Amino acid sequence: MSNFLIVLLVAIPFLAQLVALPFVNHIQPIIIGFPFLHFWLFIWMLLTPVFTWAVYRIQKAKGDVD
After folding, report:
1. Which member of 5, 10, 18, 33 has the greatest number of CB atoms within 10 A?
2. Burial annotation 18-49 (CB, 10 A radius, 16+ → b, else e)
3. At what angle do helices 36-62 and 2-14 cross, to 10 degrees?
4. Alpha-helix runs per DSSP H in the chain
5. CB of 37 closer than 8 Å to CB of 21
6. Residue 23 in 3-state DSSP?
7. Distance (Å, rounded) from C-alpha 52 to C-alpha 54?
8. What is the pLDDT of residues 12-31, one digit of tens each?
């Protein structure tokens, strides 16, 4: 189960930043002064380290990380 969770936590930022781009490639709405596409990428730049930290914590709990 934890291996599936790790793969999911790695795949979500990848999919959000690359695969979802054609779906979020809009100028409107403007959020905090950014077009939606730029805001989307900015948010995922902030969220990706959170997902990476979660993968690290899972692997550390399993004993896979020193």
Report:
1. 10
2. eeeeeebeeeeeeeeeeeeeebbeeebeeebe
3. 160
4. 2-14, 21-24, 36-62
5. yes
6. helix
7. 5
8. 999 999 999 999 998 899 99
